[in-house]
Amino acid sequence: MVAIHTREPALTLRAGSEALTHLREHGLRAADVDIIPGAAGGPKALGISGLDQAVFGDFLPSAPRRRTLIGASIGSWRFAAVTSQQPVTGLQRLAELYTCQRFPKGISPREVSHRCAQMLTELLEDRDQAILHHPAYRLVVVVIRSRGLMARNGGLGLGLGLAGVIGTNLLSRRATGAFMERGLVYGGEAPLPLGPLNDFTSHHIPLRADNLRAALLASAAIPMVLEGVTDFPGAPDGVYRDGGMLDYHLDLPYQSDGLVLYPHFTDRVIPGWFDKPLRWRNGDPRRLRRMLLVAPSQAYLDSLPHGKLPDRSDFKRYLDDDAGREAYWRRAVAESRRLGDEFLELQHSGKWRERLQPL
Q1: Any idea where the domains of the chain sit in the sequence?
Q2: Predicted model pTM
Q3: What InterPro entries does the record tag this protein with (predicted)?
């Protein structure tokens, strides 16, 4: 008898309580999606580029409507790529620009910041206005405003600030508010589709032509890796950094009339960057009740080189072998087309119902 081999599923689909009910009643329809979060995660974004291209290039355009994109760190850059030009072109451009970044051992935070600013210039060129006035998408960039020692730009002071965040976070996530405040940078006068933000001091900052790039650079400014952003027009004075430190996977109080569609790197929602090793600290089910999370399956990850998506550790893994890292990352980008193809196939066939799991 001839054995029949079938490829393992590339995607995991998980839904919050109300999203499960909604999907079972109405199906997976693009018209129902009104919020899309984008997590921090650096090079992991390359590993889901094909999924992003399917979502923004095929699925969502099939039912045009006004939608909110809420991104932290690389999530905000993904959405800037989507809203500044044709989505597929922009996402492909972002993946290639990121892949080509080279950071030699000992490079200073100032030089890393300079190179990231150059990358942003190459990504956006002169299309800032397209982001600010996009007819279908409203961009929300998540940043943090540093407090206390976290407001130091490098050196022992910043190191002590990070140690303070780690220590207080073990006791209480809310206690990290002594070191960080949330900043939400967005345009328009309409309120965001979020409930009250009572967990941390939160600043609502107008997104404008003179601060768009500052917001995007701040949202990706990892402490000790990049310099914090201090020249931030329209924002309260301070040092602004990577929004993923506080809102790593964007565990926010979403208020959606339809669905929150989350193309994600993993099937877990981790509230803050410092919560990664704390397996008991996950997203609040009440906040995520309208969410459909779509992420690479374990079988898909196992099929990749090194058994994972690209990440920042690859700069060390491929130290002095930039060509090897770039080849690995390009392969991961190419493989990610499977994620997008499977998402569209599941949506068209209705077979997603068989794969849906509780979040």
Answers
A1: 11-358
A2: 0.95
A3: Acyl_Trfase/lysoPLipase (IPR016035)
